[in-house]
UniProtKB/TrEMBL annotation:
Organism encoding this protein: Sediminicurvatus halobius
Cellular compartment(s): Cell membrane
Compositional bias (Low complexity): 29-39
Protein name, per record: Endolytic peptidoglycan transglycosylase RlpA
Enzyme Commission number(s) from the entry: 4.2.2.-
Organism phylogeny: Bacteria, Pseudomonadati, Pseudomonadota, Gammaproteobacteria, Chromatiales
Length: 288
């Protein structure tokens, strides 16, 4: 019996908190009066977690591959957050999820990894420690803890356009000021400081460089330009109420994209329509 249970237990551990199907009742914890006062996670050298780092894994019928290294990782996309429903539950790394710690979930980065997360519309930037797997919803690239989402200024909206990049201890030492780096956790110190910040009215963090954000949904990438054009014609005929373009890159690929789209609600709406039409949900692209 123990042998039969072990694979299921390992799968549940790998899936982590963020990956579980949406449940009613997830939401914020105690109000945080001054999110900017919560210290960022401080990157430090750590061995890979014993759990949560297989070469590949499957969740909800999809297979994901874990990166061998986080060096040079940089991606733009949409962030979400998770909170009270999962507080205290075990993450993919085996650590308990602490919604008041500066942590995050990611599908592919090695556990743990420290990343900087920059809100593209406000310019705010935080550093978190990735210790969980997820999010497994379409069109999301990172799931932030409640405290991290509060500091980034995205609690009310629930989602935000972000840029995520890895941060190493040497880069962190050269960085300027709090709130200027990426995803990390300092454990008890972060939790204690977040608890001390709990109070009435939130005070916004000081923004850095903000951007005008536009979204595209990439539906396919082809070596042959003719194949890309044929898909673009089909999408145009399906009338998705969005412009269709073929972007030809220096790498030899021709990428078929819908957009620009004005906001995340439009992204999700057209992504759902793409999936219903048999094209798949697409992949969110936010140009530099």
């Amino acid at each position: 019996m123990t042998r039969r249970l072990l694979p299921a237990l390992l799968l549940a551990l790998l899936a982590g908190c963020s990956s579980l199907p949406p449940e009613p009742g997830d939401g914020p914890g105690e109000p945080i009066a001054d999110p900017g006062a919560i210290p960022d996670a401080e990157p430090r050298s750590e061995p890979k977690s014993r759990y949560g780092n297989p070469e590949r894994y499957e969740v909800f019928g999809r297979t994901y591959q874990v990166l061998d290294s986080a060096d040079g990782y940089r991606e733009r996309g949409i962030a979400s957050w998770y909170g009270s429903k999962f507080h205290g539950r075990r993450t993919s790394s085996g650590e308990p999820f602490d919604m008041y710690a500066m942590t995050a979930a990611h599908r592919a980065l090695p556990l743990p990894t420290y990343v900087a997360v920059r809100h593209l519309e406000s310019g705010r930037e935080i550093v978190v420690r990735v210790n969980d797997r997820g999010p497994f919803a379409d069109n999301r690239i990172i799931d932030l803890s409640y405290a991290a989402a509060a500091k980034l200024g995205m609690l009310e909206s629930g989602t935000a356009p972000v840029e995520v990049r890895t941060v190493t201890p040497d880069r962190q030492a050269a960085a300027s000021g709090a709130g200027s780096e990426h995803d990390t956790e300092t454990g008890e110190d972060v939790t204690a400081n977040a608890a001390e910040a709990i109070a009435a009215d939130p005070a916004p963090a000081q923004p850095e460089a903000a951007e005008a954000v536009s979204y595209f949904l990439q539906v396919g990438a082809f070596r042959e330009a003719g194949n890309a054009r044929r898909l673009a014609d089909r999408l145009q005929a399906d009338a998705f109420r969005a412009d269709v373009r073929v972007e030809s890159g220096d790498d030899g690929f021709h990428r078929v994209q819908l957009g620009p789209l004005t906001d995340i609600a439009a992204v999700d709406r057209i992504s759902d329509r793409l999936a219903e039409a048999g094209h798949g949900p697409g992949h969110v692209v936010i140009p530099d």
